[in-house]
Amino acid sequence: MSKKRGLSLEEKRGKILEIFYESQDFYLLKELEKLGPKKGVITQSVKDVVQSLVDDDLVLKDKIGTSLRNVYRKLESDLQSSKKRHTELVEQCNALKKGREESDEREEALEELKAVELKHIELKLNSNLLLVILTIIRKSADNIFTLQQWCSNNFPQAKEELEQMYKDVGIPEDFDYLELSPVPLSSVGDQTVEGCP
Predict the structure, then answer these.
(1) How far lies 43's CA from each of 11, 13, 40, 113, 170, in Å?
(2) Percentage helix, strand, coil, to 5, in the chain?
(3) How far does CA 30 lie from the centroid of its chain?
């Protein structure tokens, strides 16, 4: 019977790396010393094999106490930063609330503001409506002037009859374009447009 040959250092390294690759987990050295023999690496050589993997940057090694301390410090720092930011936001919120406390005076001011905004919308709609009406009136006046000119050109002998017909249908002798003068905003203030509250 021949004696079974042991694994070379490279084979041992490969077997220990398999443990990490298969589980994608971290281990204590004692745990690796128990898992090593299952892969064919004797317990006494596991520490040296792991150290060679660490030296070649294939495995990271850190003491748990140090890692936990670093994690704790990072979390503590993050917590302090979060507390500071929370305090800043609370102070900012409180500063923004000043002057906005609920009161009868504030409620009245908000209601007045709402009424003014509604009045503004109403006046804007009325203004747009008046512009549309004015455009229609001017177009109608253009049409009337065009018709009068055509009648005068084609029936010059019937001038008196045409003027009478214009009067009968309600077109006055001084008929002209409707011109609106601008109304200053200060005069609009408390006035209401006819037909509007």
Answers:
(1) 15, 13, 9, 84, 119
(2) 70, 0, 30
(3) 54
What is the identity of the amino acid at 104?
A: D
Q: In angstroms, what CA-CA distances link 10 with 4, 13, 25, 134?
A: 17, 5, 22, 97
Paired tokens of 182? 């601008």
Radius of gyration of the chain (CA): 48
Single-letter residue type at 148: Q
pLDDT tens for the chain, residues 1 to 197: 556 678 899 999 999 999 989 988 778 889 899 999 999 999 999 999 999 999 998 888 877 666 666 777 788 888 898 999 999 999 998 888 887 778 888 888 889 999 999 999 998 988 888 888 888 888 888 888 888 889 889 988 888 888 888 888 888 888 787 666 665 554 444 444 444 44
Task: Tell me 156's DSSP state.
Answer: G
Determine contact, residues 71/28, Cβ cutoff 8 Å: no
Q: Say how far apart CA 20 and CA 3 lie, in whole Å.
A: 30
33-60 CB burial, b ≥16 within 10 A, e <16: bebbeebebeeebbeebbebbeeeeebe
Where does residue 31 fall: left (phi above 0), alpha (psi -120 to 50 degrees), or beta otherwise? alpha
| Predicted TM-score of the model (pTM) | 0.36
